[in-house]
Amino acid sequence: MTSTGPLTSAGPLTSAGPLTSAGPLTSSSPVVPDYSAANLVGLVPALMAPPGRRPSWLPSEAATAGQVVLLVLDGLGWLQLQERRPLAPVMAAMAGMPITSVVPSTTASALTSLVVGAPPSDHGVVGYRVVVEGPTGPEVMNVLKWRTPSGDARPFVDPLTFQSHPPFAGRPVPVVSKAAFAGTGFTVAHQRGARQVGWYESSALAVDTRVQVQAGEPFVYSYYDGIDRTAHIYGFDEHYEAELAAVDRMVGDLLDCLPPEVALVVTADHGQVEVGSNLLELDPEVMARVSMVSGEPRFRWLHAAGRSDAAVAELADLCRDRYADRAWVVTYQDLAEQGWMGGPVDPEVRSRLGDVALVPFAPVAFMEPGEAADSRLVCRHGSLTADEMFVPLLAARGRL
Hints:
The chain has 400 residues and is α/β, with parallel strands linked by helices. 31% of the residues lie in helices and 23% in strands. The strands form six sheets. It has a seven-stranded mixed sheet, with helices on both faces. It has a four-stranded antiparallel sheet with strand order 13-14-16-15. The chain has a two-stranded antiparallel sheet with strand order 3-4. Helix 9 (185-191) links the parallel strand 7 (174-178) and strand 8 (195-199). The protein is globular.
């Protein structure tokens, strides 16, 4: 299913609409984003444009506002919100619709696309774990931690050159986010030049955002990661429901401290799928044809040994034989031709990716042999299912 524009008209968030009428997703229907339509890539440029020159897919509450606050709720998928509307009455009352995330539907790629206004193929942050050139050869770097198995990657992977697009159109936008994130490799890579306004407790997010609005900032970017962390740790149990309710109160607090001429816009980087213990260790026969593994459990890249066309084709055929009942199996060439990550990539970005991707449509995760670091996660993301790809675009005016 390819997004071709707004999935609903702007108006109260409802559970009906195209996501229901389109029918259940099957193994033949990944949600491939249209990066030129209602997508995370275009959201920040749209909101930073002058009133009257913003695209028609924005809710009207955001289209004409003189000042805009964008609140990014990491991990809050549209479908997860729809299923729990009574727990989030503030967000449920906001005008809104679903838009698509990027591919892969993972934080590193999606947040970068959001702030720089470019698809992953363009900005080069093409996943959670990507291949980089280390001191002694290729290594897999965790982008969020900016680390490889040999340690801190900053001595040999410069965040400023790894991702060179300026965020927020080069403007010094205030970023109201957890103080611990300031100065990390990933923050430098995707938020260089932004003005970091760090908070230490979540209760300060609304306060610090209000201060920036009162100072006359035309655009404020606020970020909260609690929903994502809670889903990873607990799944969709009562802890998740309590966190969603708390976040909805946070949204209400923000609306209460903003004047009516200010629009609060809420979105997310990706949704979630509850996987639990459905962990699939990669088949030994598959691993015998692989030189390296990167990506993440719901968008697993396999690097073919030798990397010849024949080796890639054999690896892809074997993976389809083993996994086609649970995952889309695509070669890099397939992915590029179908535009999953956007347009063409240059050779440096291509070197960060594998040759064959395992992208589950079933609630499973593909694990490397012996991989333990992420084995305890309950909810996961990265794939192209509706649960992971559709995120909210909600808007309301302040009510101070």
